[in-house]
């Protein structure tokens, strides 16, 4: 009897990782009725990380009050694993693009304040460890908002301007940052920042230049934001004695990687590794013959710490056959070599919108095709 593990990531904008896995399983069962199929939804530090770990470890969901990127009060949730008192959260829950409409995207105003509120809530509940997934951010503040929520005080060379009578601090004020004061009584547990990118904080490959444009920043704003984060890094180095600006992953989530290391003593780790360990992926994989993974797009970026590459490399290490089903595949040869076979949902003449709408049935069809191969 064939044993199969299905360990995909989400198809962004259409299906979460569990739904992807269930549709693949449905397709396989049609042609392989006797196969033993295990489903293990995965993530890589991006959205879906808390869900994947919560489900695999039989966790529960906790709610707390927090603020969204532009200061509105929201109910935020994070996963709690009682065994080990582990809190698993995603920065996008409070400070993600999904909290804003297209017209509300303004990275000069968006902050990570709500992420700090979530961290404090987990610390107050006695968490021994907090895992934070850094994906899907609307912010470009280097973790400055989060630090303020945690009680850090920031002083500026010029008095701040009150914006239209509202006390809304702007990220660009960091250009005039002169000193930072640490809170006296801040007690945080061990924090792991799970990232799926390797970008540093600053420069051509940094948070602002690479990810700023998709968060609504204009060319002028990008220049000011880059200066703001440079100033933040300089003052952190001078006042706190740390300089993490060049560390891979510092630029994740608009520089929140940098902020978590600088203000919370966090450790940055590849998100795929964090999730794989938490869900016991390797031991699940050892028990099967075939591994199937999937994600919305398969391209050169896949190699930079995305779920599909992580699953494929682990399967190869364990000598298992591994297949990928992707929404779109750009034909990259290096990516292709990771898998025994790659199946693509995209069809000639089908729009991307229609493909996203029909992702479930298309996955099912491709899985039937794959089952015939097996």
Main attributes?
six-stranded mixed β-sheet; 374 residues; Glycerate kinase, domain 2; Rossmann fold
Give a short synopsis of this structure.
The protein is of the alpha/beta class.
Give the topology, please.
Layout: E1 3-6, H1 17-31, E2 36-39, H2 49-56, E3 60-67, E4 73-81, E5 86-90, H3 92-95, H4 113-124, E6 129-133, H5 144-149, E7 153-156, E8 177-181, E9 190-195, H6 207-211, H7 219-240, H8 252-264, E10 267-270, H9 271-279, H10 281-286, E11 290-298, H11 307-317, E12 321-329, H12 333-336, E13 341-344, H13 352-357, H14 359-373
Parallel strand pairs: 1-2, 1-11, 5-6, 6-9, 9-10, 11-12, 12-13
Antiparallel strand pairs: 3-4, 4-5, 7-8
Helix pairs in contact: 1-14, 2-9
